[in-house]
Specification:
The complex is a heterodimer.
Chain A (H helix, E strand, L loop, with lengths): L1 H4 L21 H9 L3 H6 L16 E4 L8 E2 H15 L6 E7 L5 H13 L4 E7 L6 E3 L11 E5 L1 E3 L14 E5 L9 E2 L5 E8 L8 E3 L5 E8 L4 E2 L7 E6 L31 H4 L4 E6 L2 H13 L1 H4 L6 E6 L4 H10 L4
Parallel strand pairs in A: 1-3, 2-3, 3-4, 4-6, 5-7, 6-8, 8-10, 9-11, 10-12, 11-13, 12-14, 14-15, 15-16
Chain B lengths: L1 H19 L2 E5 L5 E5 H7 L1 H8 L8 E2 L5 H16 L23 H8 L3 H14 L2 H15 L4 H8 L7 H10 L8
Parallel strand pairs in B: 1-3
Antiparallel strand pairs in B: 1-2
Classes of the chains: A alpha/beta, B mainly alpha.
């Protein structure tokens, strides 16, 4: 709902006719009101009146964002503020914690501490968005998260280390949104509880291996690979909807059709019954496959025609295969694929 | 025994009839009656859900003595609108775009719903939502209040909400010094 973001509430702002209605609300309601404000403004409400002096410490959400509530805030400008804030608010429970910072010299040690702080406060929704020194990504070398409260995690602008995306110790996590991050050093994405994954402009390993995604209870997948080898999907029998967009050139240097003939080549599909994507998405009701690259297309085509999954496909209601506008020729070939269904 | 049994059966029949209805009737503090979708009421209000499950819903209008008719009308309106709206928080988005809506951001219709309220009506609705245990409506109304505060100076906020500054000048100065880290942009 992008239109809603810039919304400015107005009509109800007419001055109150009677007394101090807001001050009469219970504390828990005011903690909720403050949870939606940028943190700096939430803290500053302590000067409004005595009623407000400690309310900010118990706000159920913390938003480390720009003053407009949307833009990232320069890291250098908020580092000291956030450290002081977290120290003084102690371990009051947090439902939502959002950190959206920008700058060329972001110190990852602070971010790691802030994330750990959120975990300590039993945060349910954690957002960490780094608008750093593009195209370099911030190397977020942290052990995997452990929390039985975390339900949603949103990350941006990070490069993950090997097991950070192993969510074995987050049994309640359902939503994972990862934008403009590097998975080059991530060994796997693993979770028994995840239901929705949205990976936008993900950069994967471009050398030997493919990153496995092992999330057997996934219901929806949006996967946009913008660099490196397409990750390999394990079986996901509950999948309802899959959107896969591959805009990287996913090929073995020795072949452009997905099979160079070398059995030991990890980049190619070794035989007719295995595939990179189809184990994961073949049970989806809605499937959208998109690509701008001939190689990827060939791999998909090859997989489809050979796949034992799709030949007896009973679930698929809506299939859209779409080639990026830059490759109109391949769209023609795409049409030829349709009789397989 | 016979009489008791007959009474029990009648009670049972009445309960079954109630369970069959797909609306419930709510009565405001000033005696006005409102019909609301039972499904939406049970889904959106923990208090109403408890009353429906516990059989304490009165066919002639369940008394909600803490809620005035204007606020109750807004509650009922919200429930009914919610029942009719396509749940955009649904699991699946068919859109080709890879964007997702931020967590708990109010929907467009929810924004419009609270935007049209007067100052007092908004606060009456917050209190009613709190009383009825309506988490989503509390989020939407609290979000609206935060929007009314956002970007405003303490003086402007006091003016909008009629907040009386009961600090002395010295106390205020002390707070600002103690929390200098939070007033770095002043």
């Amino acid at each position: 709902m992008p239109a809603g973001k810039s919304h400015k509430g107005a009509p109800a702002a007419a001055p109150a006719s009677g007394g101090d209605r807001i001050g009469s609300l219970p504390d828990e309601i005011l903690h909720r009101v403050l949870s939606f404000l940028p943190a700096q403004q939430a803290v500053q409400t302590c000067v409004l009146a005595r009623r407000w002096i400690h309310l900010w410490k118990y706000a159920t959400g913390l938003r480390i964002v720009g003053a407009d509530g949307n833009a990232p805030v320069p890291f250098e400008e908020v580092r000291e503020f956030v450290d002081s804030l977290l120290l003084l608010r102690g371990s009051s429970p947090l439902e939502r914690f959002e950190v959206k910072v920008a700058g060329a010299a972001i110190d990852v040690r602070n971010l790691r501490l802030w994330v750990r702080y959120g975990m300590m406060c039993n945060v349910q929704v954690l957002r960490l968005k780094v608008h750093g020194n593009a195209p370099a990504l911030l190397r977020f070398e942290d052990p995997p998260l452990a929390s039985r409260y975390l339900t949603k995690l949103e990350l941006r602008g990070l490069a993950f280390n090997k097991d950070f995306l192993d969510f074995s110790r987050c049994p309640a996590i359902q939503d994972l949104i990862i934008k403009e991050c590097s998975f080059k050093h991530a060994e796997r994405i693993l979770s028994q509880s995840l239901k929705h994954i949205n990976i936008v402009r993900g950069i994967f390993n471009n050398l030997s291996s493919r990153t496995p995604i092992h999330t057997p209870n996934l219901a929806s997948l949006k996967l946009h690979v913008s660099g490196g080898r397409t990750p390999i999907l394990d079986r996901m029998p509950l999948m309802v909807s899959a959107d896969v967009l591959i805009s990287s050139c996913d090929s073995c240097s020795r072949s452009d059709n997905g099979d160079c003939g070398d059995e030991s080549c990890k980049g190619c599909i070794p035989n007719d019954t295995s595939s990179v994507l189809l184990h994961g998405i073949s049970e989806a009701e809605k499937l959208l496959l998109a690509s701008g690259s001939k190689t990827v297309y060939l791999q998909l085509k090859r997989s489809y025609s050979c796949s034992p999954y799709f030949k007896h496909h009973a679930y698929l209601k809506d299939l859209l295969i779409y080639m990026a506008a830059t490759c109109p020729v391949y769209f023609q070939e795409g049409l030829e694929m349709l009789p397989y269904f | 025994m016979e009489v008791d049994k007959g009474k029990g059966e009648a009670e049972e029949t009445r309960k079954v009839a109630e369970a069959d209805r797909d609306t419930v009737t709510l009565k405001s503090s000033d005696g006005k009656l409102f019909e609301v979708s039972k499904e939406a009421a049970a889904r959106l209000s923990t208090v109403l859900a408890g009353m429906i499950a516990g059989g304490s819903i009165d066919d002639n209008g369940t008394d909600l003595k803490q809620i005035g008719s204007e606020a109750l009308e807004n509650v009922v309106d919200y429930c009914n609108k919610h029942a009719n709206s396509i749940p955009s928080a649904a699991l699946i988005s068919s859109s080709i775009s890879f964007n997702t809506a931020p967590f708990k951001e109010p929907e467009e219709w929810e924004r419009k719903f609270v935007d049209r309220l007067s100052h007092d009506a908004l606060f009456d609705l917050v209190e009613a939502a709190n009383f009825l245990g309506m988490e989503r409506l509390l989020d939407v109304t609290c979000h609206k209040i935060s929007e009314m505060m956002k970007g405003k100076s303490p003086d402007q906020i006091r003016e909008v909400f009629n907040i009386k500054n009961d600090y002395t000048k010295e106390e205020l100065e002390e707070i600002r010094q103690e929390l200098a880290w939070a007033f770095y942009d002043d």
